[in-house]
Amino acid sequence: MSILVYAEHDNATLKGVTLNVIAAAQAIGGDITVLVAGEGCAAVADEAAKVAGVSKVLLADNAAYTHQLAENVAALVAEVGKDYTHILAAATTSGKNFAPRAAALLDVGMISEISSVESADTFKRPIYAGNAIATVQSSDAIKVITVRGTSFDAVAAEGGSAGVETLGSATDAGISSFVGEELAKSDRPDLTAAKVVISGGRGMQNGDNFEMLYTLADKLGAAVGASRAAVDAGFVPNDMQVGQTGKIVAPELYIAIGISGAIQHLAGMKDSKVIVAINKDEEAPIFQVADYGLVADLFDAVPALQSQL
Amino acid sequence: MKVLVPIKRVVDYNVKVRVKADQSDVDLANVKMAMNPFCEIAVEEAVRLKEKGVATEIVVVTVGTKAAQEQLRTAMALGADRAILVETDEAAQPLGIAKALKALVDKEQPQLVILGKQAIDGDNNQTGQMLAALAGMPQGTFASEVNVAEGKVKVTREIDGGLQTVELNLPAVVTTDLRLNEPRYASLPNIMKAKKKPLDTVSPADLGVDLTPGIKTLKVEPPAERQAGIKVASVEELVDKLKNEAKVI
């Protein structure tokens, strides 16, 4: 078994989710090669070489890969990946963007967002918004897979001593180009990596009231998320959305405030270790998954909670 | 320009699905079916492009059973001009569907293909990207804004951490995210008119594609049930439980 793991990074540092993907690769078993594609990203390759369990790092440093455009990255992954039995990427917007394209170029099916490894060709993955778990088996020569990061414990970032090999030529497909990006700035931990997540829903009533959650989050070192209702109402930007169509989180503690608990939201957070729900409607479905439920007006409960911590 | 919109018939998103006792699949007998919500957004975007005078013809297509005609009629009631059903009883997977769509792209020569970003049954999020690869087209996935101008399409994409804008040469593939638009409802007169619009049926063999799934589903189980929780009476009790019982703060 030889496994190619696609490294997620911002051209400066390796993103934490890559360590979870390497953990999934270890569960499959075999030689693990990490592919780092980007521009001016040699530091990322050095970082990847130190990760426990990695035997080789391939570095594709070229302007064609600066913004991870799917057309160029998928062509690279399909070219490099044809000598491997497995190609793994994180189930992030980046992984979801290029991995199916690479699979089609290799003429193989793809398995999205695996949550566990049963054997080298058999995996479990959630379907129907997490309401069912399918066990699937691939007979393809190359298995192209995206990995749900929160389902695998990260491997150690230190302890490895892999060699870095630089890949020569790169091709720019020339059919797409990067125009610009707008990234939301936040000093709080990343939503998908935070140990504690506090989310607000429609019950927050407006965007200003989210300040209460930010203050509480800073006290707990938590990230702040939101339900789709809060995002659609314009309270907060959409990259804060937790759910089937937003981010999947599995923190140690998830506090749902003013969130009813639609199945699409539950799909994004029900693997959290401890779930707390604060809602004034005692019939809200969120209470069916909450370990601790408090039926109360959030405008009384949140300040009280803050003063007690 | 011509716009091709592939759609999918799926279980209605309000239905809470149950797993069959023999664990072969989820139980879809007598369950309400509908057009996948992301596909509705794709149809809406195509119709808006036509209303702006950018698109001249909208062809809606699906790969599925005869019953999927119902969703094609819905799409035509929303504004699509004609429909193609690739009829099969096989539960086709994204790669097979993408190959069938590639054959239709070769035939129809659309300038833009708009799909939903994922279907809410398989949650794969693969078909658009695979079609783009097979057709050699650029892709604008998870689109929250689409602007067509001068032989190119500018797509604003929802990515982890914010938004990214890319420019793609036409022909291109775009997949829709939730915030791209608010789909309209079909009016009764339009539903009546849609019954007269052309709907062609072709077989996978006509297109020269094999839809046999390459990935086998061995088992479908319900997710692990969470232990029933407790209700606490006050914030004090909650903090106490989190500190001393759950030990998470």
UniProtKB/TrEMBL annotation, chain A:
Stretch forming the signal peptide: none
Entry keyword set: Electron transport, FAD, Flavoprotein, Transport
SUPFAM superfamilies linked to this entry: Adenine nucleotide alpha hydrolases-like, DHS-like NAD/FAD-binding domain
Keyword Flavoprotein: yes
Electron transfer flavoprotein alpha/beta-subunit N-terminal domain span: 3-182
Homology family: Belongs to the ETF alpha-subunit/FixB family.
Protein name: FAD-binding protein
Organism this protein belongs to: Alcanivorax quisquiliarum
Organism classification: Bacteria, Pseudomonadati, Pseudomonadota, Gammaproteobacteria, Oceanospirillales
From TrEMBL, chain B:
Keyword Magnesium applies: no
One Pfam family cited in the UniProt record for this chain: ETF
Top-level taxonomic group: Bacteria
Record domain Electron transfer flavoprotein alpha/beta-subunit N-terminal: where: 23-211
Keywords: Electron transport, Transport
Protein's UniProt keywords contain Electron transport: yes
InterPro entries with a match to the protein in the record: ET-Flavoprotein_bsu_CS, ETF_a/b_N, ETF_b, ETF_beta_N, Rossmann-like_a/b/a_fold
Family to which this protein belongs: Belongs to the ETF beta-subunit/FixA family.
Protein name: Electron transfer flavoprotein subunit beta
Gene source species: Alcanivorax quisquiliarum
